[in-house]
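ligand=adenosine-3',5'-cyclic-monophosphate
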Amino acid sequence: MVERTFSMIKPDATNRNLTGKINSMIESAGFRIIAQKKTRMTLEQAKKFYEVHKDKPFYNDLCKFMSSAPIVVQVLEKENAISNYRTLMGATNPYNADAGTIRKEFAISTTENSVHGSDASETAAAEIKFFFSEIEIVG
Ligand code: CMP
């Protein structure tokens, strides 16, 4: 089933000029980038985006980091895009990520792990809506 997922290239990666290299890995893996823009979250927006983690010990540091510099937000389309993109990203902690994954290649730490991808179809729909209007998703 052709599916959409939400992807975010995080501040550690935009700071190091890695957007092109990450997009190349995404496209080489067969995803179409059907919407994309560079933006920067305020601390409040980052807190809202990651609200599900609000009780976790890393929440404050994560939100501070995610609002520290620009991000690139994307909608990706592919067969089984949600699980396929999580495979391409690799484990949250880059130390545990498989060779050939984005996080193995580029991530610095568990927080500064270069990319985010949705974990389920409901989250994908909500995260896409958080950043994009229908008119911005061009296919
Ligand atoms: P992401 O896929 O964006 O989803 C939640 C983020 O929280 C995750 O990537 C990491 O950046 C961060 N995160 C998850 N677990 C931890 C942890 N144990 N310590 C620090 N940051 C974490």
